[in-house]
Amino acid sequence: MRLGRNDACWCGSGKKYKNCHINFDQKIEAFRDAGHIVPDHSILKSPEDIQGIKESAKINIACLDYVAEHIKAGVSTLDIDNWVAKITADMGGVSACLNYEGFPKNCCTSINDQVCHGIPSADDILKEGDIVNVDCSTILNGYFSDSSRMFIIGETTPEKKKLVEDVKKSIEIGLKEVKPWKFLGDMGNAINQFCMSQGYSVVREIGGHGCGKEFHEEPWVSFVSKPNTEMLMVPGMCFTIEPMVNLGNPDIYEDEDNGWTIYTEDGSPSAQWEIQLVVTEDGYEIITY
Ligand code: MF3
Ligand code: CO
Question: What domains appear along the chain, each with residue ranges and CATH number?
Fold first, then answer.
């Protein structure tokens, strides 16, 4: 159904369409007509939605801040899971990981050559030199937040340390491309180019995602994409940037026994950071980090 100029705008502002999103929609339609992938209204977040996601993110960030302070050699990944479970519950939230498609724990913990979706376990004790990703996803009042950070246990090799730092840097480089009326491919390409320039490879099969009213929403976000491709970015889009970057080749495989954990095919270390952001009128605002 097409909205009339005097109808109430779809965004819920209560204003007439002609005084609200009509020009915005026409601009999007022009990109669609030119053959681009454009966002549906259903994934655009209202100011109230963004407020709700930010409240959820307070819990998400608190979990990772706690992990940052307490992670060290001798801690098991189950200990980390217990911290995340307790903080999330104490702050009134729910883990989005727990029971997600049968996932058995409250967060993902991925060590060294584990690329992502490692399952916390009492058997996995962190040791000096490990690099580990802790990925937290939180629900509060129906709003989803998602972020992950890398932690280095004690001293690690210069190679692994640089990988961890460079993946974080790649997100900063990608963020420079996040602006309304640019494309997700501009951002993904910037990340891929930088990672390749450092001799790394970026995982192709797993990427970022829209996030906010659902855990995983449109769009899917690639970090090996090309400029001027993938979805048009517009204000109100909320998604994650979470490149998985391997020191060796990009190939990965899934653990056959648990059906979750992803490893590098060549056994090389892998690192990932994840942030969540919302596209604003003139750039972006970071929601989780
Ligand atoms: N947090 C991950 C992401 O960034 C998803 C993990 S799904 C889980 O999208 F079930 F493994 F927790
Ligand atoms: Co994510």
Answer: 38-288 (3.90.230.10)
